[in-house]
Protein: GCN5 family acetyltransferase
Organism: Deinococcus aetherius
Amino acid sequence: MIFTVRPVRDGEWDAAGRVYTLALPHDPFSGADFRKRDAEQRGWGYTTATLVALDPDGEVVGVASYSQNPGAYHPRRYTLEVAVHPERQGQGIGRALWDALHADLTRHGAEAARVLAREDHPVAPGFLTRRGFTGDKRYFTSSLDLTAFDEAPYRALEDRLGARGVGVRSLTELRAAGTPDLAARLHALMSDVRGDVPRAEPATPLSREVFEEAVLNDPGLLPDAYLVAEHDGRWIGQTNLFRSEASPDLLTGLTGVTREWRGQGVATLLKLRAIRAGRALGGTLIRTDNASDNAPMLAVNDRLGFVRDPASVSYVWRR
């Protein structure tokens, strides 16, 4: 069967999102998510494209994209996604999508590209290896059932940190209080705590423009669950939750604590308050992901009862 691969058109974003989510239900991504990222990337001057594979009847049966990571930016390095409808796998659609991606990456002078694949996927690891990808860094996606979570064991931690003057306020509360220079302070806090987060590519500064567009103005951001830990007027940690129309699950953004406050329970306190906020918002499941070498955060999540999925491997292609 001959498949047509070309850039997505305006009426095909939702179909692309459905195929992606059917193929990768552990990592749902809606048409609106694809469209938003495409608009952001172009607005920031990055190189990006979303491609679809269509069968002879014009049905979207596969989707692929390349984009650039603003938090680990390099002008010749890309992040990829490739997904084929589960009922249409094994028909050459993935090969056609990769051929189109490869041609575009070559045309743009790419030196490297990364894609995540679950290590238990029946097709992806072999597909990628045969095309010259090499797996290196591993990540765990973990989930917590909010309906079964017991807060009681953590009350002593809350009391202990509270006695030391550590408090937690939400973005909703900070806005209502008229916090001066709020966006600038939130950007500075995120810039501080994200630098040591393990990742496959070196971290680069996240500009104020990107932070405001991609985080503060994200329509999926939950202001009641964007939480800041503070002590004596200084902000010492943060976490945040998002929701996508692709899934009812609550998704964790970045949880981080300033260096001088690490190892003192602040990350656990922030996670606990995020769990509480998620429940108040009607959430039943929180999902998060961490690099396998981020031992401190994995330990926090494990203690709270997050259950790990099979690991995802970051595969890299180098020209």
Observations:
- Residues 73 and 204 are 6 Å apart (CA to CA).
- The chain has a mean pLDDT of 96.
- The domain at 4-110 is CATH 3.40.630.30 (Aminopeptidase).
- The chain has ten helices and 15 strands.
